[in-house]
Structure formats: C-alpha cells, structure tokens
Amino acid sequence: MNALFNFTRESITELLLSLPVILLALTVHEVSHGWMAMKLGDPTARNLGRLTLNPLKHLDPIGTICMILFRFGWAKPVPINVRYFKKPRRDMALTALAGPVSNFIMGFFGVLFYRIFVAVFNSTLTLASSAFALNFAKAVVTFFYLFAWLNLSLGLFNLIPIPPLDGSRIFLTFLPPKYYFGVMKYERYIMLGFMLLLYTGIVTRPLGIAVNGIFKGFNNLIGLIPGL
Predict the structure, then answer these.
(1) pLDDT tens, 83-127?
(2) Is the peptide bond before 164 cis (omega within 30 degrees of 0)?
(3) 100, 155 in Cβ contact below 8 A?
(4) Which residues are the active-site residues?
(5) 24: closest CA among 143, 180, 176?
(6) How far apart are CA 145 and CA 104, in angstroms?
(7) What is the pLDDT of residue 186?
(8) Rounded to whole angstroms, how far apart are CA atoms 82 and 195?
(9) Is 128 left (phi over 0), alpha (psi -120 to 50) or beta?
C-alpha cells in the first residue's frame, strides 16, 4: 500500500475531517477558474451556474475518490470559451493557473492556523486536562493539518502538464495550435494511463515528497512570526 495512506488509516475521525476539506478545496479551485475567466471576458461559467460554492456543481466522482484515497485528484472542469478572450493563449494560461494558486493560498493559511492552534494548545493544555479537551485539540490541529496538506497537494497535482490537468492548459498554450490539438485529442487515454500510475504510487510518492517540502517551507516561513 502507498505510504500516503498512513495518515488517513490512523482513525475514522481523520477521514471524516478530510471530507469537508476536500469539498472546499475542489470547489474553490473550480470557482477560481470560472472567476478568472469571467474577469478576462468569458461569462460561460457564470452563465452555467458554476460560480457557486455548492460542491455538487463541481465534483467529479473519480477525481473526488482519488482525493480521498490518494490525496491527489481533480474536480469537474469549469467550461471555458476561449473565443471571449482578447489574448486566448495568455488568458487560457491565467485561467488555468487560477485554480492551483487558490489552493496554494488556502494551503498557506492552513499551515498558519495549524501553527497557531499548536501554539495555543501547547500553552493551555496540560496532562491534567480532560479527555474531551485533549481530543478536541487533536481534532482541531488535525483538521488544519489536513486543510493545508490537501490544498497543497491539489494545487501541485494540477500543475502537472498532463491533460486534462491545469498544467497541460498552461504548458500547451505555448505550443503551436496543431501540436496543442494533436495532444488534446488523446486526453482521455493519457488520463487513463496517468490514473494507473497514480494507483501504483509511482506518481504519488514524488508528489508527496514535494508537497511535504512546500508544507515545511510555509511552516518555516510562518515560524519567523514571533510566538509561532
């Protein structure tokens, strides 16, 4: 089994805490795509009701399951019509980038609140504290750890330049149109192959190391704040 399962296997509580985080992370990710597209002139997502925080509008069943099992996944892509863009290549790249950026921002704040609550509970809880207080503190700290980790993993995962992930929309916009469409017509097959690699752990292991590095980087940066 993949090492990334270790944390979620510890208890049912951690799995339950991860579910609202996954719903929020995926939803904000897709809304950010739609919002950026709208700002650049494309009202498609807004007109189709995708600029909403209702997670049911954005969830992709397989992508959500992958988020739960592997901590890397995706949502149902927001529809984009590049004909509305003044500079299609640039604006498509910016729209694609908006989703991962939103997750990195939420991941940073997840690490921040993780550090805050660790500091608060370390200074207020003692061995004499009630079992309820200790369990509550553990649940809060775990929630923000998961909030940070899952958002960072979603943001980084989607930057991989493989269709239909956001990284492909960014990278392929720099290719001539004939090469771009030549790659995109195999999008479904590429994704099936990539899911196989995801299942085997070949992809999740290096991604997990990278996410851990980003988490530690944010943690060290926040640690420069007095009291944290």
Answers:
(1) 999 998 899 999 999 999 999 999 999 999 999 999 999 888 887
(2) yes
(3) yes
(4) 30
(5) 143
(6) 14
(7) 67
(8) 28
(9) alpha
